[in-house]
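quick one, 380 residues, struct below
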Amino acid sequence: MSTFDRQPEALMQELIEALPQGWNCSSDYAPTDSSAEWYELNMREWVRDAQPQAVHLRPGEKIVYDWRLTFAREREDGLPIDGAVVGALRSPGGTRRLFVHYHNMDADPAGLFRRWSDHAPARGIAHWLQQTARATDLELIERTLTEERKDPPLRKNWFPGPSVLVLDTETTGLSTNRDRVVEVAWLLADHAPQQWRSDLINPGVPMPASAYAVNGIDDSLLRAEGGDPAKTLDDALDTIAEHLRDGAVLVGANAEFDLSLLDAECRRHSLRPLAARVGVEYLKVVDPIRIHQSLFGARKGHSTLPALAELHVPGAAGLHTALGDCYAALHVLAGLLSQECERIVRRFTADGPNRRTTDEHAPGVRPRPVLHHLLALSGS
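---
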């Protein structure tokens, strides 16, 4: 059955079931808002330019809506990130086509456009929304890091060490034994981002739908852009190890999971693990999520990276990619050190088994955590 043999309500239900995580959908079959006229003025040119098959439009022929559905992707605090409109166009000659207009609030204000043939399934639309959102997220995080390198948002000496290297991965699932790494990203920073990189890896196994709904990475993307697992991991771990040997402190949100997956991949491909490349028996990691849990307990809803980003650094939520999560983890850690430094130090100034150093602070001088404090709270 073609898309146009279905009622809009039926297609909307299919789209809702197929939508990526974080998107919602509502109906707007007879648009009356002020944007409707703008859509109609531009739709003819978009359809003409979208694909050669649009030559069925005759000079002066007007395009009208059969119906349309509106979509939104929201942050943890409910503010919109992306918007999209999916609908059916009908010409006076009876030709009907699906269209999608995508708009990101921070990226390209003109949006993106793509047209489907009338037999395109709902999952094809959902897939396009996911891939477009992921590409936009990557564009935005690259832009943000470049801007912050020029105009640092953090004060100098915000961290008790010369620099940090934030590590994150995307995987096929949550099992450290069975699942595979499909993306590895790292971010080197002092008071500003200095270097960063993100690599896709094609593990040669199918990407589960549950993982795809979270990270937007599917088999077609990995086949097109994913690197060889052994070579990509070997190169990435060599670079990470070099920065750690040079004095950078390893940082990661839920880092134990990422490091376990990376170690499993190294065993699978007969590669040296990261610790051996650094020259240590085991890696010490500063984990902002573990630090928050040590200070406040595992509060419901506050143990995820996006939630902590909104809690400690409003507006710095992760951007749904491994590199975006590196950026979010960096700013969550900076927020904790800025907002909770006295609480952190108090954990180590009273007599007890955790006390290893007693820092004397001049009157009126705000106490600052040392690296040992952060590693202890991280369970490292």
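The longest strand covers residues 64-74.
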